[in-house]
Amino acid sequence: MMANTARLRPLAWWWKKWTKRDWAIAAVAVTAFLFLLSSLSDDPRRDRGPGARLPAADLVDLTLLRDADAKGALCLDGSAPGYHFSKGFGSGFDSWLIHIEGGGWCDSLSSCLSRAKTKLGSSAYMEQQVSFSGILSSEPSQNPEFFNWNKVKIRYCDGASFSGHPQSEPKDKKGRIFFRGQLIWKALMDELLSAGLSTARQAFLTGCSAGGLATLIHCDDFRKLLPKDATVKCLADAGFFLNEKDVSGKDTMRSFYHNVVQLQGVQESLNKDCVASKEPSDCFFPKEIIKTIRTPVFLVNPAYDFWQIQNVLVPEGSDPSESWKKCRLNIRACTSSQLKMLQGFRDSLLRALSEFQKSKEGGMFINSCFIHCQTWIGETWHYPNSPRINNKTIAESVGDWYFNRRAVKQIDCPYPCNPSCYNMDFS
Ligand SMILES: *[C@@H]1O[C@H](CO)[C@@H](O)[C@H](O)[C@H]1NC(C)=O
């Protein structure tokens, strides 16, 4: 159990690092933007409606869910869940983009209890403001398709991709813990529906990592909440977790998911037919989930997702000789035999996607970068130097697909062929 907690630590560390980094990027962007505003006598944004003038830095306040106690919708520690809401303006007033935050999972009582003392398990530790960038940015040059939509970032605080159930809460342990993921999802949707989502003309449910998985799990529910004539689609970013053996031949990810599903009673939120015919935790893997989703889905996933390399392919403990020590932190440090294994991992991803690739409505952007989430980070979403496939950024590819401009099934050539990649280096 401790090993699993330890395995999740690199993600938490990365998360903090990105957040700081993103703040820095946002600060630079805002300074540049304010400079631009001051130098233009006729700001072209002004005709986009009264909301067009942004608050400094696109910082968005945390809102706590109303009546969380009465609804039983609680974070792991019993606090109210939260989200950040930025109101749509101009032509985006009746369009909604929801983004579900990620942050791994807890797979044991002890790891959930530790998580309950962090912002991934309690709103008491969440930032009061976050900056909206990438797919959440209100800046048209950074987010050309969705900048003026109503935008919501849902904070992740249940530890099981919004799919836990209270029947599985331990009754007789000392520290109380709450498994309310599914109730949080429902209560948040109710609150957003009454804030205008119920009359949306266009809606887009998105999420990254564990939030990408939550997006896939709840995509069809989301569809049902919205008007029949609304355009409703979903996007999972870095949420396509593979049921693959690690380098030592163990089913680390499979047993990890098994523990998460068992601990929080997640099978209740999974597809009934799948759960009836398979081991329930298999139905928590996107490969199974996408077989049953009826709403159009877009998958953004790097073929060398560093979270998966560090936790699925080469988790801590799978490499006692430490021969992967450098490669798992920096793809440029991989030996040719290690790269061969990474290409095998990419092949597994492409195999798992082969049916989906044939679907008419689905879209995909599978780039060959050593990165994790790419939609909510400005640098990877739509900067001039953002990753591209066929000269299209992720933002352009997603926009082309969402607005039916063309079919988008982008699969990059294998590493290291794409010079536009943003490859992380943790060493
Ligand atoms: C790639 O796209 C950019 C604009 O997004 C354009 O300026 C450039 O000419 C394109 N390059 C090629 C090779 O098509």
TrEMBL record:
The keyword Hydrolase is assigned to this record: yes
Organism expressing this protein natively: Rhodamnia argentea
Keyword DNA damage attributed: no
Main location: secreted
InterPro entries: PAE/NOTUM (IPR004963)
Name of the protein described by the UniProt record: Pectin acetylesterase
Enzyme's top EC category: hydrolase
Localization in the cell: Secreted, Cell wall
GO BP term, pick one: cell wall organization
Assigned protein family: Belongs to the pectinacetylesterase family.
TM segment ranges: none
Molecular function as annotated in GO: hydrolase activity
Function comment: Hydrolyzes acetyl esters in homogalacturonan regions of pectin. In type I primary cell wall, galacturonic acid residues of pectin can be acetylated at the O-2 and O-3 positions. Decreasing the degree of acetylation of pectin gels in vitro alters their physical properties.
EC number: 3.1.1.-
Keywords from the UniProt entry: Cell wall, Cell wall biogenesis/degradation, Hydrolase, Secreted
